[in-house]
């Protein structure tokens, strides 16, 4: 698997050969679907709650006597069929968290990296540093890269204070993540993947395939 390395001026420098165990694995769409649903569920708060008839305040007194009025029997004014009553089958608080094992998370990330590389949506960027936290300098780098106004995730070796301040005005267009923290879900949410040249070694170290994982894939 080869990808192009670009300078911060947008010039092609060379082709870089990537580790096929990380950037050239078989695409597993079912795995990606499960992981996407799990990460989406983990983002849900699940704090919505409606009151049932037993939770609505009041309604302790019987509205009228059982017989002799000609009206239907009623035991509480907080019945769901009454205005101001409880809610039937309404949503209640719940936890949507799905726990994924580390091996599943790493495999999904390898699959997404391989998918972006196969789609030619992965490029490497020569290491850049910002002496001052200027958004103008960061914008110039973005404009020089062949990303065609797509939404981007930029993976860096580490998030420096200057880089954090320089990119914060571009949150809609680009998301910057350290190599130790980005996930398969982060890559799914963006069309283009830009990786800092210095971050490749950390990514390969983080996603190194164990003998057990190799046997499971086979």
Structure description:
This protein folds into two domains: 2-44 and 98-217, Ribosomal Protein L4, Chain: A; 45-95, no CATH class. The protein has eight helices and six strands; from the N terminus they run ββαααβαβαβαβαα. The chain has helices at 20-23, 29-43, 102-118, 135-144, 161-167, 184-188, 200-206, 211-217; strands at residues 2-6, 12-17, 122-125, 152-156, 174-178, 192-196. It has a six-stranded mixed β-sheet with strand order 2-1-3-6-4-5. Helix 4 (135-144) crosses helix 5 (161-167). The two termini are 20 Å apart.
Summed up:
The protein is an alpha/beta fold.
Question: Characteristics of this structure?
Answer:
218 residues, single chain, 8 helices, elongated, alpha/beta, Ribosomal Protein L4, Chain: A, 33% helix, 2 domains
Radius of gyration: 27 Å
Stretches where pLDDT is under 50 for at least 5 consecutive residues are none
Relevant CATH superfamily of the largest domain: Ribosomal protein L4/L1
**What is the average per-residue confidence, as pLDDT, rounded to a whole number?**
89
- How many domains, as an integer? 2
Strand order of the largest sheet: 2-1-3-6-4-5
How much of the sequence lies in strands comes to: 5-15%
Tell me the helix content: 25-40%
């Amino acid at each position: 698997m080869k990808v192009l390395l670009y300078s911060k001026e947008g010039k092609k420098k060379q082709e870089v050969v990537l580790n096929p165990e990380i950037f050239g694995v078989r695409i597993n769409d079912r795995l990606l679907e499960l992981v996407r649903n799990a990460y989406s569920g983990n983002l849900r708060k699940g704090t919505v709650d409606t009151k049932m008839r037993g939770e609505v305040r009041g309604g302790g007194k019987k509205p009228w006597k059982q017989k002799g009025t000609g009206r239907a029997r009623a035991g509480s004014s907080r019945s769901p069929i009454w205005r101001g009553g409880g809610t039937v089958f309404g949503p209640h608080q719940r936890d949507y968290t799905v726990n994924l094992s580390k091996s599943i998370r790493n495999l999904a990330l390898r699959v997404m990296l391989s998918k972006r590389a196969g789609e030619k949506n992965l490029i490497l960027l020569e290491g850049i540093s910002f002496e001052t936290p200027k958004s103008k300098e960061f914008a110039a780098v973005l404009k020089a890269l062949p990303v065609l106004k797509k939404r981007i995730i930029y993976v860096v070796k580490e998030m420096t204070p200057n880089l954090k301040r320089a990119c914060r005005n571009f949150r809609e267009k680009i998301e910057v993540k350290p190599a130790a923290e980005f996930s398969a879900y982060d890559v799914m949410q963006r069309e283009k993947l830009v990786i800092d040249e210095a971050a490749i070694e950390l990514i390969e170290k983080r996603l190194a395939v164990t003998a057990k994982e190799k046997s499971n894939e086979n």
